């Protein structure tokens, strides 16, 4: 007997109906499944987005507030020169200055190297004119360390007060030469060396020579300026104390921006101007018997120095030229920026702005010039911003209502 495999008409009809309904069911189910899985995916997507959103909106403690400062157009100087004069608003950092970046990176680097361990009584020592000390005191508190700050005793009083409020030990010493063992940086080094006991380590931050200072600006501030200007920048103008800011930003930008010019803004009394111009570290006001007031003979705090540091040396080969800025120019510039822009800055920012104006005049209209607004005038109320103090020191310069930047910058 042979079994027939040829379907009858009825069976083939049933088969076709079966196949069609199977296919329809498959399409329906696939559609349904896709819809459900798409919705699930969308929900997941929404959830992920929400989380990402939350993550980007919330910063982690005071350290999370550091950096990414805006780059602002300084209208008065831009209008006066036909250039775009930009100031990076470093005074918006939580500790009030660009030094927050440095303090954070120095402490973080020491932690990564296993030198500092939190909540062990370990103490960060630093010799500073104030800003770095304030930033160190803030980060130290946030991370479980103590801070011991050695400072010259001729700085604005609000800096000592801030340090004390932040819980730092403050040691004020007479300003003397770096070759003296009692100089504030030397003393901080010595205090750290004699401190360690048990788990508690005495860490000398050493901003002048510590590479983490340079790195903070090479890895953060420099890239920020590059991003914010889209790489369209003709000149960078900065003063130098440790030189970390100048070298870090300069090295990053010079590797990427063709024809970038870098100018040093140096206050009177500092030797860096002559070093850049003539390769001789010399300031006439530092001659024996000539020196009057401060470590460097200027009312300006934070920039100007009479020795070469590792952090300055890292970027020195890239500096194209230098401007010397007098106390009179810096004081008048600070008052001018308030009058014209409502911009209240400290003394080193005022020096930077005088040099930025000179750079703009030298390059001519149409150029983009970047400088830093390191800290606010609030840090300088009792010195640079005090008419009484300036009169008592015989360095009072009034900005007359009719005076413009063209009049007071030589
Ligand atoms: C207010 C202020 N501006 C500028 C600077 C100079 O920065 P740097 O030390 O990176 O040269 C300092 C340094 O202490 C400072 O305190």
UniProtKB/TrEMBL annotation:
Segments passing through the bilayer: 14-34
Organism expressing this protein natively: Helicostylum pulchrum
RNA-binding found in the keyword field: no
Keywords (A to Z) from UniProt: Membrane, Transmembrane, Transmembrane helix
SUPFAM superfamilies named among the record's database cross-references: Tryptophan synthase beta subunit-like PLP-dependent enzymes
Protein name: Tryptophan synthase beta chain-like PALP domain-containing protein
Residues in Tryptophan synthase beta chain-like PALP domain copies: 64-374
Pfam families: PALP
């Amino acid at each position: 007997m042979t079994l027939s495999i040829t379907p009858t008409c009825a069976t083939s009809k049933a088969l076709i109906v079966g196949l069609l309904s199977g296919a329809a069911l498959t399409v329906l189910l696939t559609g349904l499944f896709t819809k459900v899985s798409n919705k699930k995916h969308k929900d997941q997507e929404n959830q992920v987005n929400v989380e990402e959103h939350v993550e980007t909106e919330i910063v982690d403690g005071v350290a999370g507030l550091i950096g990414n400062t805006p780059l602002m157009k300084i209208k008065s100087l831009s209008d006066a020169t036909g250039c775009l004069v930009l100031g990076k608003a470093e005074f918006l950092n939580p500790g009030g200055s660009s030094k927050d970046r440095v303090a954070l990176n120095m402490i973080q680097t020491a932690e990564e190297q296993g030198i500092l361990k939190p909540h062990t009584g370990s103490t960060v020592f630093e010799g500073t004119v104030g800003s770095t000390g304030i930033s160190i005191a803030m980060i130290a508190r946030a991370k479980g360390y103590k801070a011991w700050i050695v400072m010259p005793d001729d700085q604005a009083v609000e800096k000592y007060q801030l340090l004390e409020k932040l819980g730092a030990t403050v040691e004020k010493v007479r300003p003397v030469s770096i070759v003296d063992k009692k100089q504030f940086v030397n003393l901080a080094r010595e205090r750290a060396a004699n401190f360690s006991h048990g788990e508690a380590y005495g860490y000398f931050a050493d901003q002048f020579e510590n590479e983490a200072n340079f790195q903070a600006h090479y890895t953060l501030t420099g890239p920020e300026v590059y991003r914010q200007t889209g790489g369209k920048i003709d000149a960078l103008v900065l003063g130098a104390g440790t030189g970390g800011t100048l070298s870090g930003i300069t090295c990053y930008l010079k590797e990427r921006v063709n024809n970038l010019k870098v100018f040093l803004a140096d206050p009177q009394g500092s030797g860096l101007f002559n070093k850049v111009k003539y390769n001789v570290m010399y300031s006439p006001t530092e001659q024996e018997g000539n020196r009057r007031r401060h470590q460097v003979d200027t009312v300006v705090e934070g920039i100007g120095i009479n020795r070469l540091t590792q952090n300055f040396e890292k970027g020195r080969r890239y500096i194209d030229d230098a401007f010397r800025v007098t106390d009179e120019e810096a004081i008048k510039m600070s008052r001018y920026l308030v009058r014209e822009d409502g911009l209240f800055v400290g003394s080193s920012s005022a020096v930077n702005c005088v040099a930025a104006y000179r750079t703009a005049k030298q390059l001519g209209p149409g150029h983009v010039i970047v400088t830093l607004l390191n800290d606010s005038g609030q840090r300088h109320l009792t010195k640079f911003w005090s008419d009484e103090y300036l009169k008592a020191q015989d360095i009072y310069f009034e900005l007359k209502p009719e005076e413009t930047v063209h009049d007071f910058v030589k």
